[in-house]
């Protein structure tokens, strides 16, 4: 099978897509691959197979959800079994109870849960719950934290909008923007000043930033958020759409030992199918309709296919060495990349945690969005392009994360390292 990126069939599909979709895509980061995206015919394990007959080692993994790799046999089996039973009922199904029990058992702060259909829906609902619970209107978020594509979450958000130099506030009413306070990530002094002067319903944070590249919380940052929100009677909301079940079965909250009031989930808990969830203290979750007065509903909430895929995924995580394999893959890949860049005398910083990492060129540290934006994203994109030509797909955007999975075994990683050596030597 040939290695590489785009070719004739993908180009023809791209020309058709431009006639049908804004910018040719249905999510902007997909257009960051240049000169046009490659189109995927099928996938398996750590690999994507394009319509042009090319095989790519995948370190994007659907931007995080595919922690077992593509088409894990057990997950595929459970999805097929559910399809044969039906895929939408309009009534509850037993599998939603089983998945909820799994999540609540593993997530330290979770007592009850509400399933929705995406991370965007989950964060939107969490903020609504925070307002309903506290009776306050304002929220506090952090520069560059991405909490989905809804009005409140997009104020000073990260991700693909940064890549395309677009303000995420375009189209959002000033009245909504005025209810969102912004601090820099890792800046507790700003948080305390804001909580002191404003009635903040909730502080929402990515415990590990994954949409401005990878940015880690500094020592005591998350602990400080927990203490400050308690002091000022605001809710602490962990957006674990990325980190939930990726940093471990207990997510970032278990990893760092911090219990938020609410947690938003997505990606991995759906096994690659559309999903979102809000979990937290029972007294807060019980405010949702029909038991409470904060409204939420959804035709596809707790969709049986997503529930089956998510349950199967967590069952695999419980019994197989996915975390060890994925962590070792990221460690080997990132350490080799660091060695190669140091030998070339290239200035960079590399942030890593468990099965996630990102490299930033031209800067010596990245602890917040402002520092991330100073990185040389053109050099990063050149690396992406040359890796793609060599058969390795890393995110086309500097402001996304390089993910590994349980399918990234030593053979896959060794091939990745061979390509990386060639790319960096020519960079």
Automatic annotation (TrEMBL):
Its cofactor is pyridoxal 5'-phosphate. Its EC number is 5.4.3.8. Its main location: cytoplasm. GO terms for cellular component: cytoplasm. PROSITE patterns: AA_TRANSFER_CLASS_3. It catalyses: (S)-4-amino-5-oxopentanoate = 5-aminolevulinate. Belongs to the class-III pyridoxal-phosphate-dependent aminotransferase family. HemL subfamily. This is Glutamate-1-semialdehyde 2,1-aminomutase. The gene is hemL.
């Amino acid at each position: 099978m040939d290695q590489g990126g785009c070719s004739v069939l993908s180009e023809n599909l791209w020309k058709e897509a431009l006639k049908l979709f804004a910018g040719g895509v249905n999510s902007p980061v997909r257009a960051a691959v240049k000169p046009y995206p490659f189109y995927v015919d099928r996938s398996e394990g750590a690999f994507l197979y394009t319509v042009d007959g090319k095989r790519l080692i995948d370190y994007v993994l659907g931007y995080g959800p595919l922690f077992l790799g593509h088409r894990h046999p057990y997950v595929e089996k459970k999805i097929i079994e559910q399809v044969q039973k039906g895929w939408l009922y309009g009534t509850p199904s037993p599998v939603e109870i089983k998945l909820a029990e799994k999540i609540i058992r593993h997530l330290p702060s979770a007592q009850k849960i509400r399933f929705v259909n995406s991370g965007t829906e989950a964060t939107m609902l969490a903020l609504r719950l925070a307002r309903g619970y506290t009776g306050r209107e304002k929220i506090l978020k952090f520069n560059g934290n991405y909490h989905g594509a809804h009005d409140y979450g997009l104020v000073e958000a990260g991700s693909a909008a940064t890549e395309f130099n677009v303000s995420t506030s375009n189209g959002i009413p000033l009245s909504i923007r005025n209810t969102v306070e912004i601090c820099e990530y890792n800046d507790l002094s700003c948080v305390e000043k804001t909580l002191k002067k404003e009635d903040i319903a909730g502080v929402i944070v990515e415990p590990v930033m994954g949409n401005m590249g990878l940015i880690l919380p500094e020592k005591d940052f998350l602990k400080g958020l927990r203490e400050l929100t308690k002091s000022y009677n605001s809710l602490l909301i962990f957006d674990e759409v990325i980190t939930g079940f990726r940093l471990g079965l207990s997510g970032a909250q278990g990893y760092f030992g911090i219990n938020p009031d609410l947690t938003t989930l997505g990606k991995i808990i759906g096994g690659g199918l559309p999903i979102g969830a809000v979990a937290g203290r029972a007294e807060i979750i019980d405010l949702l309709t029909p038991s409470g007065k904060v409204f939420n509903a959804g035709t596809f909430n707790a969709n049986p296919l997503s529930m089956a895929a998510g349950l199967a995924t967590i069952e695999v995580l419980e019994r197989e060495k996915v975390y060890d394999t994925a962590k070792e893959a990221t460690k080997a890949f990132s350490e080799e990349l660091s060695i190669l860049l140091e030998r070339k005398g290239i200035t960079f910083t590399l942030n890593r945690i468990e099965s996630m990492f990102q490299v930033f060129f031209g800067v010596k540290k990245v602890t917040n969005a402002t520092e991330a934006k100073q990185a040389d994203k053109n050099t990063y994109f050149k690396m992406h392009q040359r890796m793609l030509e060599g058969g390795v797909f890393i995110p086309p955007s500097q402001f996304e994360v390089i993910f590994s999975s349980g399918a990234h075994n030593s053979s896959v990683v060794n091939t990745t390292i061979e390509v990386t050596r060639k790319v960096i030597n020519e960079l």
